[in-house]
Design brief:
With 312 residues, this protein is an alpha/beta fold. The chain is built from 10 helices and 12 strands.
Length: 312
């Protein structure tokens, strides 16, 4: 099946492998952008980078059930395949996406999948040491699900390069360690976070926000940027290392200006291991990340927004 006579729509693992084999025979490099759909300009920036760096580009659209807990919003997660395909077919002019992989759950989980961890059967992948903290505290099975589905997708596509956005900083660290430790011959490319005009990191979850909350959520990046400015100023002193507590207090002070926002965490972490840092030293740097809960537009509770900056 094709869309606009350009993009191949691949539904099965076998179809992807046949397509990939042809690329191999033609000595064409392949870039891969895995997504859960609900595409936005942030996804398109990753696709655009892949188009620049590879002969062929494939995008996957798959809402991965194994990274959701039973109480989470799997059913509510936006599914917009038609508009996603329309975006992929119209957004890029000089060079187009070659293929889109849209598998059924049964294709990706041949042993079946349930959201209840104790009842799951089959093979799963866990990356120890960098999955348990930050996002992993409140979502303990999340990175197990991410690592499992990315391993499956890498086995199917065998791309030369795979693309992720810096917004999901912990995910990027998990995937880098996964690829390193499982000896997977794919380069992990992490691209800068794409932001809305007010600085809010682009995310599918922004669709849950009212215009006023969306505008108010700009304070998240404002707070992180304030922490970055503090670090850059203090790191010029002697000694150049900066106490993490100073950076954290600065960020928290800005975020506390929004009384209806709930800070879940702010962390200063080692860029490769995600261990908490007491000090940030130039050269090693840090990932400074936060999760903030903000009111949903429909009044049904809170949406959870994450963002981060990288200190060098």
């Amino acid at each position: 099946m094709t869309l606009s006579n350009t993009i191949k729509i691949l539904r099965t693992v076998q179809q992807v492998r046949q397509w990939r084999l042809q690329c191999l025979l033609n000595r064409e490099t392949v870039g891969f952008v895995p997504t859960m759909g609900a595409l936005h300009d942030g996804h398109c920036s990753l696709v655009s980078q892949s188009l620049k760096e590879n002969d062929r580009t494939v995008v996957s659209i798959f809402v991965n059930p194994s990274q959701f807990a039973p109480h989470e919003d799997l059913d509510a997660y936006p599914r917009t395949v038609d508009s996603d395909l329309s975006m992929l077919s119209s957004q890029f002019k000089e060079k187009v996406v070659d293929a889109v992989f849209i598998p059924k759950i049964s294709e990706m989980y041949p042993s079946g999948i349930t959201l209840e961890l104790s009842k799951q059967k089959g093979a799963f992948v866990t990356v120890q040491g960098c999955s348990e903290q930050l996002e992993g505290v409140t979502r303990p099975q999340f990175f197990r699900g991410v690592a499992t589905v990315v391993t499956k997708l890498l086995n199917v596509v065998t791309p030369d390069k795979i693309y992720f956005g810096q917004k999901d900083a912990q995910q990027c660290v998990v995937i880098k360690n996964l690829v390193k430790d499982l000896l997977i011959n794919t380069e992990v490319r992490v691209m800068p976070t794409l932001r809305e005009k007010n600085g809010l990191a682009m995310s599918s979850r922004n669709a849950y926000l009212s215009p006023s909350t969306r505008e108010g959520s700009a304070i998240i990046y404002k707070a992180l940027s304030s922490g970055q400015q503090t670090y850059e100023s203090l790191s010029k002193g002697s000694p150049p290392r900066v106490p993490s507590s100073v950076i954290l207090n600065n960020i928290r002070g800005v975020l506390n200006e929004k009384k209806d926002f709930e800070i879940e965490y702010i962390a200063v972490s080692h860029p490769e291991t995600l261990e908490d840092l007491e000090y940030v030293e130039p050269g090693t740097g840090a990932i400074v990340s936060t999760a903030v809960k903000v009111p949903r537009a429909d009044g049904s509770g809170q949406a959870r927004l994450i963002d981060n900056i990288v200190l060098v």
